[in-house]
# Entry
Amino acid sequence: MNKQKESYKVIALMSGTSLDGLDIACIQFKAQKSQWTHSIICAETLDYSNEIGNMLSTIERANGNALIKAHFQYGHYLGEQASIFIKENHLGDIDFIASHGHTIFHQPDLQFTFQLGHGAAIAASSKNIVISDFRSLDVALGGEGAPLVPLGDRLLFSEYGACVNLGGIANISFDETTQRRGFDVCAVNMVLNHLCQTELQLPFDQGGNIARSGKFSTALFEKLNSLSFFKKLPPKSLGKEWVFTELIPLLNEAPIPIQDKLHTFCHHVAEQLQTVIHTSNLQDPILFTGGGALNSYLMECIKLKVPRVHVPHRNTIDFKEAIIFGLLGVLRIREEENSLMSITGAESDSSGGSIYLPPCSKQ
# Structure
């Protein structure tokens, strides 16, 4: 492959911590006068089968053999889905597949992170070049390994004063003097979906309608906001481990109805975002994407606290993280930095991602 060409057609695969399915997108990236532009050729979200959803939600408790087996099996699944997507959309030749994988463990304080979906299996099943495991090098260099999206925010969405992604976990990025800053703010859909699934047997709160019907609990609100993570200075990141050991117990212990928990948690998210935006003296407009941007009640709470919220076209809401990991793959192929020490706290900038060539590749 010509590493320094000006245009790349990329398949990006993204599975978020909220477990709402596999995002798959084909994006065209172009380098024009040292600036990157992008266009989505086609994109969709594939719902997980019960079998895959259950595996992803429970595999962290498996033994080593089962974990490695799932790593390869899920990789083959990703490769197969990418191949079907390419064929059904008549995409022809692509430059490579960029796969984030599904985060199972993220504990940078213990110097490891692990995203399920082996790149070798994706390459074997799709017969395409694959870039995966974007976070490990940064963690090995002493960084948080997250968030990685802020660099893409700067390169593709620089017209906004800040970019917020409301996924399983909310993260924010913005320019501070000459450096890009970014960090995780709080849990969002990981918690809202968990409450709906465990207490209501619903996959999620459609439009935030259940939360809207609830009442505000001052006691729960104060407990949530008093968690020590919110006093920690960046760089910082969150993982499923923290959410389920530190935050979920507070919600489980609260002697209030589920609708009140959802209602109060939405206000907690808005409060944390307001705090970050105010203390960082951020300029508007602020771009909001991710599944949480489709939660009408959550966005109402945020708009009460945050000025000039901008919610973009649905494709950008749904696929922005996939788009950016596609770009991070382009930077990796070009051997350019795709992880910044100013964001993650690593000892240096780096170009992370393992590259796998397909069988009998002529590249």
Observations:
- The chain is about 40% helix and 25% strand.
